[in-house]
Amino acid sequence: MHEYSLMLALVERVEEEAAARRALAVHRIRVRVGELSGVEPDLMESAFEIVRSGTICAHAALDIERVEARWECPSCGRGVPGGGRLQCATCGAPATLVSGGELLLGQIELEVP
Amino acid sequence: MCETCGCGDPHRVSVDVQEQILSVNDREAGHNREHFASHGVLAINLMGSPGSGKTAVLEATARALGGRARIGAITGDLETERDAERLRAAGIPARAVTTGSACHLDAAMVHRALHHDSLAGATLLFVENVGNLVCPAVYDLGQAFNVVALAVTEGEDKPLKYPVMFRKADLVLVTKTDLLPYLDVNVDFIDDALARVMPRPAVLHLSARSGAGMERWFAWLEGRLSPGGADRAETAAHPHHHD
């Protein structure tokens, strides 16, 4: 499961940020996970439990905002519903994924001196 | 007392990062991509389930295009060098990356393999990823194109069950079509499922065993090989040093 290596990358990035600000603790990490990002939020949470121990994130909460997949026609702007063919029903253009692919570190809440 | 603001107590701050969680991998992938571009290497990330026919497609590709492109391969598996051995037997210099328990290749693994001498001179580099329809899709390796092999034996609904992998595919190879007479599988249903997960469905039906449809795959590759690629082959090693 790649959620584990993903959480390692997340904690390393947060540690970097915490060190740069000489933080005493990390209270909260907010991430955005798209429906089509290829990552399972539940597995992400359990991987985070393991990875955070012994780090400055040991007592941090992980807030996962799940983002639904949304497809749109790039030429006429109409929404293209998921589940059906991903080409615009009106003009035939290939749909663009406007949200739902993201795997983002949003904000970190730190305790600083 | 705090040097910055004069307060006496630790306090909470919120830092707005807004960065990809895989930014380190993405940077490494960018480095690989620059290397491929500057050396005229066409890099293809070949993904698919275990047993979808990835290695067989590459063996047939080596036989057909061996004279026209210098092919190299990096193969990812949890254990064994078997795929790399099969490809070497087919005339492709191949470097095996055994990932242990990791379910995918990442950009750093590909980068380390690129330093291997056997891959110097390749103008068409295949990265045969770990057989898996989930995890490899998440990691950019620096490839120019993602190609996904999907065997007809896997059934008609695989694209709908694994949309992330197929969304990232630039081309899907529906493989093992020689087995269709023995299966209750309708390839039209596979194509329809692909059109529901790929905005630009690009699909080729082929059989590495019978050779049916393989010419279209070779033509797809040849259309993407850089015209000067073969001439620049001597410079395609990865000469710089890292700590």
Helix content of chain B: 25-40%
For the biggest sheet of chain B, the summary is: 7 strands, parallel
Report the end-to-end length of chain A measured between terminal Cα atoms. Answer: 37 Å
Series of secondary-structure elements of chain A, N-terminal to C-terminal:
HEHEEEEE
Low-confidence runs of chain B:
229-237
Strand order of the largest sheet of chain B: 4-3-5-2-6-7-8
The run of helices and strands of chain B is EHEHEHEHEEHHEHEH
- The CATH architecture name of chain B reads 3-Layer(aba) Sandwich
**CATH class assignment of chain A:** Alpha Beta
Radius of gyration of chain A: 18 Å
Number of strands of chain B: 8
According to CATH, what is the class of chain B?
Alpha Beta
CATH superfamily of chain B: P-loop containing nucleotide triphosphate hydrolases
Protein architecture, described:
With 113 residues, chain A is an alpha+beta fold. Chain A has a single domain (3-69, 99-111), classed as hypothetical protein PF0899 fold (2-Layer Sandwich). Chain A is 27% helix and 32% strand. Chain A has 2 helices and 6 strands. By secondary structure, chain B is of the alpha/beta class. Chain B has one domain (23-224): Rossmann fold (3-Layer(aba) Sandwich), CATH 3.40.50.300. In chain B, strands 4-3-5-2-6-7-8 form a 7-stranded parallel beta sheet, sandwiched between helices. In chain B, helix 1 (23-38) runs parallel beside helix 4 (107-114). At the A-B interface, helix 1 and strand 6 of A face strand 1, helix 1 and helix 6 of B. Strand 6 of chain A pairs antiparallel with strand 1 of chain B.
